[in-house]
Amino acid sequence: MALSVSGGTLFTILLISRLLESSLLKAEMKEGEILPPTIQRLMKGYNKYLRPFFDNGPVTVGMSLDIASIDTISEINMDYTATIFLRQRWTDERLVFEGNKSLSLDGRLVELLWVPDTFIVDSKKSFLHDITVENRLIRIFPNGTVLYALRITTTVACNMDLTKYPMDKQTCTLQLESWGYNINDVMFYWTRGNESVSGLDTLRLAQYTVEDHYTSVSEAIYETGHYPKLVFHFELKRSILYFILETYVPSSLLVVLSWVSFWISQSSVPARICIGVTTVLTMTTLMMGARTSLPNANCFIKAIDVYLGICFSFIFGALIEYAVAHFCTLSYGDANMLMYGHHMHDFDEEMNGIVTTIASDSNRTKRRKETVATPPTPTSTELTVRPSSPSGSEPRPEAAPEEAPNRCLTVLALLRKILHRTVNCCHVENPHYIDNYSRVTFPLSFVMVNLLYWTYYLYF
Fold first, then answer.
1. What is the phi/psi pair of residue 148, to 5°?
2. d(CA 400, CA 46)
3. Contact 305, 327 (CB under 8 A)
4. Whole-angstrom Cα distance, residue 45 to residue 94?
5. Mind listing the pLDDT tens digit for each residue in 157-176?
6. Rounded to two decimals, what is the model's pTM?
7. What contacts 24+ positions apart, CB below 8 Å, involve 247-255?
8. What is the pLDDT of residues 53-107, one digit of tens each?
């Protein structure tokens, strides 16, 4: 019983294997029947592992591009993603056939032909579209010319200079090279020069406009040799309107809002402090939000950073202005009280001096009356006449030594006067004038800085 079961299983396996072999043979026969006689004749003896003109010099490959779209341009990763149609043309003498019509083949037959080993140099990631089939095109012309087209989406690195962001212009490239064949085997060229690249004229980007584009031909030099290289350059100019509405206008309005405190009384401490602190914190939030779309670790000092720094300085300066004005107000009040005390003290001393002078004058008057009432003696007459006699001029030479100290005092008084005037230039007699000065100096300074900023970054 067991032998019969095992024999039946073996017979079933052999039957299935026979059926599979017969189906494979039929499929091969059908594939051979699908290929037209012309292709069968061309493929006979064809070696796809050998390039055309293997012993007769390099094969020339012409390139052309059609830019379907540029999806994203990232400043953080410094790259762009584009979908392109890459078309390559070359001549293969082994594919010459009679006739005047080209042969359009299925893209899957590219596995039977030799194709250039072209690659995108700065590509980070790329893929070939395969919906609904692989997007390839193979067309063979009677003279042996082969047209090979691909639809590729690639992310390519682009070195960006962000020092003038967002008023910057970026020049990105798309470089095509041969991976294994050097210039002795393969030569690249643009089929129509600068017109070999199309699609940019009708391209619409979110933040950029394509200002210029051109092509160039060069060689890539590596340790293993010199390789053919084609470069497509295109210049992108950023649209600044979005950043004006998103960053520049709000930051400027915050600066103007900080000036409102100049028209508020200095005694309203909570109101002015609230305006100052609120504008500083809002400006800080705006600066942090403006950096979210830029690289975190970036050595560039960007134009937008400079402007936000200027606005932050003016806002912080308005807050410091109130602190200085409030401090000067308190000091001014204390100084007035102290000056009032000095004035009262001087007035008391002056009154005491007047009383003393009146008392001394009255005493002198009494003495004179007593002197007139008593007859003078000869001795007293001589004593009283001598001071008024010519000999009374003898004390005058004592005044000569006093001239030098008087000159020194005059010089010191002059220096003190100059120093006092210099200090008074920075001294505000009334602290309330500080707000009056700030109402003019802050707006004028901000306008001047804006003129310098926009002139430099737009025209230099």
1. -125, 115
2. 129
3. no
4. 9
5. 999 998 999 999 999 999 99
6. 0.70
7. 247/286, 247/290, 247/304, 247/307, 247/308, 248/307, 250/286, 251/283, 251/286, 251/307, 251/308, 251/311, 252/311, 254/279, 254/282, 254/283, 254/286, 254/311, 254/315, 255/279, 255/311, 255/314, 255/315, 255/446
8. 988 889 999 999 999 999 999 988 899 999 999 999 999 999 998 888 888 888 8
